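From: lab user (bench 3)
To: helpdesk
Subject: output format question, protein + calcium ion

Hello, I'm new to running complex predictions and I'm not sure whether the block I got back is the full result or only part of it. Here's what I submitted:
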Amino acid sequence: MMKKTLVMAGCTLTACTGMAFGQAHVALGHLPAGGHVDYDFMLLTGEIYIGMTTPLGSLGTNFATPDTRLSMHQAGGSAIIDNDDAGVDGRGGGAVGPVRGSAIRYGAGGTDNYTARVRGFGAGDTGSFAITSAKITPGMGYDFNDIEGNDTPADAQLISLGVMQAKVGFGSLTNDDIDYFAVNMLAGDVLSVMTAPMSSLASQNFLIVDTRLDIRDGAGNIIITNDDAGSDGWGATSGLPVRGSVLRYEATADGVVYFAVRGFGSNDVGDYAVLVSLIPAPGAGVVLLAGLGVAARRRRA
Ligand SMILES: [Ca+2]
Ligand SMILES: [Ca+2]
Ligand SMILES: [Ca+2]
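Helpdesk reply: Thanks, we reran it on our side. This is the complete output you should expect:
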């Protein structure tokens, strides 16, 4: 079967496991018909992997091709968790569908080698996708932190994202809180975002804080929103209740796009991680080759 080491941002996912914790990655891949693409890495006991796929084969319309599945395996074993369709997708001013990308959150029950596997829903599902992922060591550093006062679009924290770059941030929700973040996008750019609840890790789950995740306009109007999405597991445990959120969004004009994290209810308080990546429009010089992403840099506002 397909066994690949993907090149991304100057390192392979395997090689990157020796780099700073909290580091996020985004890579382009090509799903072969009937095959799969594996991403191998090491996790220490208690470390967390979060990842999501963004199908890129029908860009300009939706994120429906290829229909991916994403699964987590320990030491080459069978799938512990396996997700098919996760989250809400948007383009321009509203939602698009059907949703066919996938997402997982996983806590390592033991120090071992793990594999995140992308495969098609069916043998005929083939095409280009992005995978955005992060290995998180609780208590270690993040690429950015939620800084309060970020409760409106005007006070959003600008997250600097280069092309083919991912970052993972850490935030806390208090009563009636919302955390606004802003990203500069060009028409055709794709934003992939997911949250992982971080306040119930001691119970080996991702239940607290129950997040909602929105893409919003500059007036604070919701363009798309998601409550619960993906599949969660810990150790050998699969099928944990899911409270984290997943969104994919294609900009149709140049400008600032806002994503916001809030609680399911006003009393849902606690910590979360938020993973975000930016993929440039195909016309910007990105070449989608089998298993290899080559990104050309464009000027950003
Ligand atoms: Ca799917
Ligand atoms: Ca806030
Ligand atoms: Ca939720």
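A quick orientation on your result: The pocket of calcium ion (ligand 2) is lined by residues 148, 150-151, 177-179 (CB under 6 Å). Let us know if anything else is unclear.
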